[in-house]
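Hi there,

I know you've been waiting on this one. I reran it after we fixed the sequence typo, so this is the corrected version. Both the input and the resulting structure follow.
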Amino acid sequence: MEEHRARKRFGQNFLVDGNIIRNIVAAIDPKPAQAMVEIGPGLGAMTHPLAARLDRLHVIEIDRDLAARLREGDLADRLVIHEQDALKFDFGALSVELGSALRVVGNLPYNISSPLLFHLADHATCVTDLTFMLQKEVVDRIVAAPDTEAFGRLSVMLQYRFECAHVFDVPPGAFRPMPKVMSAIVQLRPRPVEQLTARDPQLMSDIVKAAFGQRRKTLRNTLREWLTQDDWDALALDASRRGETLGVADYVRIANHITDHLAADGAGAPARA
């Protein structure tokens, strides 16, 4: 079969290091009957060892040439190939179809990793866990602690919805073509529903986005649309702080405070100043 050339527009860097592949598969630890989805199988470096341990593996591949290779491969009878964009894929519908929560894995293209993670967070109720290879900088942001440079919107929103763990790093030499950056494996497991205490998750998302939209500005400025000084006093939070200094629980408290006041005021708009 003709050699496939990596396509820049799809952010393709193919994993070729056998030891790294074995370590990733061991971290995933697939069991035969599990409902597993691989995003971006590429040339099948992880697809083959995963499919060999599963009754069936669903794969999402946007590159039609790579999808065709998978259909012609020796494990084709164990694969269900979805030739489409993972950013538009309905994971909830697949979970319903299979009658099972999904385990989602993959070597995610760097250029779509953050929007894809947010897309999967919207489907968190239908997944068991997520195991991804990402640019190490993105993994550092996912697991970052408050009041650090890496802590931001991605940290807050994913840590609210998932338990996040950095598993191990993957050097550039493990790929062809070789990327210019370090990669890492991250595992995300949905938190129990009882831990998700934000009464209006969309409002919380809007607040977090605003708080980190201009990182150098204080919370008094970034959240002025929602909160007055009286609100900050009631929350016992210093409005002169910046967004990265607050933890996930603080953002939940702020969102719930605003939700409660909007309900009490019978208001539909956020501004109460």
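Quick highlight: The longest strand covers residues 127-135.

Best,
R. S.
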